[in-house]
Recover the amino acids of this structure.
């Protein structure tokens, strides 16, 4: 009798213990989509690493909502169709909650329809030309009013009104220069020359000749990738010094400088970014230290890396707010998120889905770092469509470019051959 | 049995012990369950409260953001209007040419005044300005004392208006300042500005001043924040956080209250105004524990904290605690009642049991308990009844056994007597054996020692008969004396041999009776021939374990006996028959010696074996009357048996039986 009395509660107790779920919750999957091979790998691998670092740090602190975050790293191979394909695979097959990735505007514009089609979410870490606002992309990098325009304004005030524009022949330089062309007169400057080279090109003879002839107050450089090597070498060879004509670059950061160090011909020139490794803040120290500890001592850290690192944290913060990893809900929760980043306070603007960012101008030092010579001191509200551009006007312009490039976001002539030589060089 | 035993009082009742137990169980259970539930509900509730606070914070900051964004949209629309551009260029021109107080300026101003005023009313601003590229405020609706001043001058350089002006020109972008004390309006003000650009040229800046009161109404709306909820907004200025709006608990806080960055209880506002988002529990500036959620409002560079006192947030606990206390109280009461009735049943049974026990202990015997209880008490009652019955039974048994004891005692005494008698008997047996032995010794000694004088008497008698010539009478006397002495010697010899049966026996060996009988017949040959007796042996005579000499003597005596008592006129016939017999599980060898002699009276069947027993006169048949006694003795020594039966004039029959497996010591 007594035994039965004891056995019944014991059995109930044991059953309850056995029945209670004990399994570890499934991880939250996130995609990291960057070029790990090809011409963009040199820039994108560190960005991928910074993204991965942020994911690892979240996991080290116990994950999100009691779940681990599982990063699926995918190689876009510096090839935009590959990016598009892999993006779709991540979304459809891997069923990731979010994708962090892309570098070039051409890449972003190629994957954009995919993210929009699947109503998914991409955190894009690189500054860009603006004139774009996708409900499925959160831009962690600078919009033109957070880099190009203030830098242009500063440049005219600092160096003088006569501006020479040089850029790679793809969408970002074209749009950036369109803005500069339009805004420079208002800011009492003028564009006296403009030249584009295919991505990866090394032939600057014509340009140098023109620069020598025109003697601009400043060169605004939107060349991307390793063509910059050749450009600065050509300037140096032509005897054009920083005192004659300073170059203000929009696409050269610490990572790129680390590869261009030996030539010393970039020292004293300028770059406009939101973040420099030389920023003095506890948040920045933490970022640099943890990155270098994880991936290698003395490795350079750059603006897109910081933006990528912060992007993951903002996403995590949004997941915490949303209390779910559901992409749609997290996307809404991402808006209005703020974070104290190495570069200062970053907030996602509710309206534009771009980040509030502080603009800084840095002067290249011998050690490959930047000395910050000017900054906006506080974050600037993002405006992907600058005041003087209507969305309509912007789309017209972009359409025209797209058509000119045979339905591509970069100049296409001899592209394949160029790419081949590039690949050979970068390897 | 102690008859003075008093029933002791119950010092602590079962009821009270059960009550104590149930109270402890219920309170313990309530405490554990309550503690667990309290903790888990509290954790869940705290999380829920924090999430709801966090959502409230988000909503609030979204409203603020939207407020600013709406203004940005308004000014953008206003700034690109051709009329605004026109006004800007014309007013700036008149301002520069003739000054703000000139008729020309007034005329131009009046031309646009209505347009701007209408706008101002529609979109809820405090004031509207047009500023030329040099920073001169060339138009304002309110015309406070800043009108017509230059924003570049020292007193304005740090104002929100000057900031938005500069930013508009530098970035060609719509922008806003945050709230700050603005001297001309003598109140907190924030501005929004936009460059006016026409035909690729920047003309100036249009700026609007927020309606501070309306804006702050957003912050003073504490809907959903209960009695203690508070919205704290602050801005990081240098190394401290300036509180930028009145607090519920401190209406003078705006731009007066400062939180130092290292101040321990200012945590959320410090974090919020530095761009961090979060929620949690902390101690606020009043020293109260609060639940708070916080985030950053980029448009104002403010941090916003929405908080509510933990006391209030968890105020429902007081009600729950009250309810739970009542429930626990009811539970206890119900348990007490149940316990009371339950224990009463038990205690009543126990009391009955106790009383019954007491009665029984006091000597009353017909005690019985009628218990219907099905529990252990019922069992105990049944066992008690059984015990009473057992005790009664035991008592009865005790009486019987006492009587039995008495008779036992007597029996014991008898037994002792018997034992004593046995001892005596044993003693007498031993004495008998001793005397028997002595007798045998005596017989033996006597026989020897008696022979000696007898032989002398015989020798001297014979010598006398030979040497002396006696008279006939004397000779007759001497002959009779010699005959008597010879008989005496015969008697002594027989006596000696009788005694020697027991004392001088040989050890037993296997003896073939046929051999032994033939030897005996050899010895008796003379007599057999003399009377011409016929001796027949029928059956196979067995081999037995026996003393061979005594066996020979046995058969010699018996056959001799038959030869002696033969009829004078009839031929003697002796038949010796071997038989197998059975007696008491023993196999027997029996030998029957039968004759057709004179026989004897069957009444002497037994006496015939007695010593010196003679059935006939000595003059008719000589003999000492000891031969059959010796036979009996020999047979006895061999654990055998001998019977005699006879009939006068017909014959005698002797039957000797030996056990087959005879093992007898000599």
């Amino acid at each position: 009798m007594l035994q039965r009395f004891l056995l019944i509660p014991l059995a109930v107790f044991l059953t309850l213990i056995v029945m209670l779920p004990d399994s570890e919750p499934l991880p939250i999957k996130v995609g990291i989509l960057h070029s790990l091979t090809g011409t963009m790998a040199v820039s994108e691998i560190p960005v991928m690493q910074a993204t991965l670092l942020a994911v690892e740090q979240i996991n080290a602190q116990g994950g999100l909502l009691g779940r681990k975050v599982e990063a699926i790293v995918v190689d876009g191979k510096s090839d935009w169709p590959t990016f598009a394909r892999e993006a779709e695979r991540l979304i459809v097959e891997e069923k990731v909650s979010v994708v962090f990735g892309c570098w070039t505007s051409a890449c972003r514009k190629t994957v954009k329809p995919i993210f929009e089609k699947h109503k998914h979410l991409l955190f894009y870490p690189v500054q860009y030309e603006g004139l774009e606002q996708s409900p499925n992309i959160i831009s962690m990098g600078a919009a033109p009013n957070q880099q190009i325009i203030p830098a242009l304004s500063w440049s005219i005030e600092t160096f003088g009104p006569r501006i020479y524009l040089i850029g790679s022949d793809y969408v970002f330089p074209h749009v950036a220069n369109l803005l500069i062309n339009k805004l420079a007169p208002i800011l009492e400057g003028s564009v006296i020359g403009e030249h584009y080279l295919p991505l990866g090109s090394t032939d600057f003879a014509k340009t140098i000749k023109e620069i020598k002839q025109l003697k601009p107050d400043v060169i605004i450089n939107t060349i991307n990738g390793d063509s910059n090597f050749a450009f600065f070498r050509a300037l140096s060879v032509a005897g054009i010094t920083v005192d004659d004509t300073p170059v203000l670059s929009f696409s050269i950061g610490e990572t790129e400088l680390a590869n261009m160090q030996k030539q010393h011909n970039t020292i004293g020139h300028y770059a406009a970014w939101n973040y420099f490794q030389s920023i003095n803040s506890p948040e920045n120290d933490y970022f640099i230290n943890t990155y270098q500890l994880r991936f290698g001592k003395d490795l350079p850290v750059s603006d897109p890396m910081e933006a990528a690192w912060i992007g993951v944290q903002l996403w995590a913060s949004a997941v915490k707010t949303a209390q779910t990893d559901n992409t749609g809900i997290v996307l809404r929760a991402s808006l209005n998120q703020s974070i104290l980043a190495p570069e200062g306070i970053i907030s996602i603007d509710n309206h534009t889905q771009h980040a509030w960012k502080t603009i800084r101008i840095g002067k290249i030092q011998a050690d490959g770092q930047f000395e910050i010579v000017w900054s906006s001191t506080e974050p600037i509200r993002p405006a992907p469509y600058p005041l003087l551009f209507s969305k309509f006007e912007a789309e017209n312009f972009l359409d025209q470019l797209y058509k000119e490039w045979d339905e591509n976001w970069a100049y296409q002539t001899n592209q394949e051959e160029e790419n081949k030589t590039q690949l050979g060089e970068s390897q | 049995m102690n008859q003075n035993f008093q029933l002791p009082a119950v010092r602590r009742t079962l009821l009270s012990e059960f009550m104590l137990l149930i109270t402890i169980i219920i309170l313990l259970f309530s405490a554990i369950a309550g503690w667990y539930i309290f903790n888990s509900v509290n954790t869940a509730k705290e999380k829920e409260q924090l999430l709801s606070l966090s959502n409230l914070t988000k909503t609030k900051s979204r409203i603020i953001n939207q407020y600013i964004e709406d203004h940005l949209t308004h000014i953008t629309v206003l700034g690109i209007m051709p009329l605004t551009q026109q006004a800007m260029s014309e007013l700036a021109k008149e301002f520069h040419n003739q000054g703000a107080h000139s008729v020309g300026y007034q005329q131009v101003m009046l031309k646009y005044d209505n347009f701007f005023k209408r706008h101002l009313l529609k979109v809820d601003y405090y004031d509207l300005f047009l500023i030329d590229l040099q920073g001169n405020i060339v138009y304002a609706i309110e015309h406070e004392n800043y009108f017509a001043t230059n924003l570049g001058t020292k007193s304005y350089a740090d104002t929100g208006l000057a900031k938005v002006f500069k930013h508009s020109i530098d970035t060609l972008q719509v922008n806003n300042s945050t709230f700050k004390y603005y001297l001309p309006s003598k109140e907190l003000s924030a501005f929004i500005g936009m460059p006016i650009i026409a035909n690729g040229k920047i003309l100036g800046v249009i700026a609007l001043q927020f309606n501070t009161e309306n804006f702050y109404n957003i912050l003073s709306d504490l809907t959903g924040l209960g009695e203690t909820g508070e919205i704290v907004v602050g801005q990081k200025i240098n190394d401290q956080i300036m509180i930028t709006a009145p607090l519920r608990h401190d209406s003078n806080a705006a731009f007066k209250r400062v939180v130092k960055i290292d101040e321990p209880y200012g945590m959320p506002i410090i974090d919020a105004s530095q761009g961090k988002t979060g929620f949690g529990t902390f101690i606020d500036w009043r020293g109260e524990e609060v639940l708070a959620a916080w985030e950053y409002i980029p448009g104002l560079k403010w941090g916003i904290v929405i908080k509510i006192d933990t006391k209030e947030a968890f105020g429902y606990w007081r009600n729950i605690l009250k309810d739970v206390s009542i429930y626990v109280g009811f539970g206890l009461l119900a348990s007490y009642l149940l316990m009371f009735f339950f224990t009463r049943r038990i205690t009543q049974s126990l009391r009955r049991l106790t009383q019954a026990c007491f009665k029984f202990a006091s000597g009353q015997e017909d005690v019985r308990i009628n218990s219907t209880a099905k529990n252990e008490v019922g069992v105990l009652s049944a066992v008690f009844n059984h015990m009473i019955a057992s005790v009664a039974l035991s008592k009865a048994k005790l009486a019987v056994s006492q009587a039995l004891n008495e008779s036992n005692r007597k029996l014991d005494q008898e037994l002792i007597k018997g034992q004593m008698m046995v001892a005596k008997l044993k003693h007498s047996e031993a004495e008998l054996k001793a005397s028997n032995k002595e007798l045998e010794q005596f017989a033996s000694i006597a026989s020897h020692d008696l022979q000696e004088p007898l032989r002398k008497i015989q020798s001297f008698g014979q010598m006398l008969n030979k040497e002396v010539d006696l008279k006939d009478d004397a000779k007759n006397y001497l002959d009779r004396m010699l005959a008597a002495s010879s008989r005496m010697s015969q008697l002594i010899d027989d006596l000696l041999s009788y005694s020697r049966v027991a004392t001088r026996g040989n050890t037993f060996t296997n003896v073939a009776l046929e051999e032994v009988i033939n030897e005996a017949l050899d010895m008796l040959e003379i007599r057999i021939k003399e009377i011409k007796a016929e001796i027949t042996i029928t059956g196979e005579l067995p081999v037995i374990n026996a003393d061979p000499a005594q066996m020979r003597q046995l058969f010699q005596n018996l056959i001799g006996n038959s030869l002696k008592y033969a009829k004078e006129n009839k031929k003697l016939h002796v038949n010796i028959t071997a038989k197998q017999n059975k007696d008491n599980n023993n196999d027997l060898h029996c030998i029957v010696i039968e004759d057709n002699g004179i026989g004897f009276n069957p009444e002497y069947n037994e006496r015939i074996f007695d010593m010196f027993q003679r059935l006939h006169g000595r003059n008719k048949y000589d003999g000492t009357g000891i031969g059959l006694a010796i036979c009996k003795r020999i047979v006895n020594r061999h654990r055998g048996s001998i019977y005699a039966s006879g009939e006068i004039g017909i014959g005698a029959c002797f039957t000797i039986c030996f056990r087959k497996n005879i093992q007898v010591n000599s």
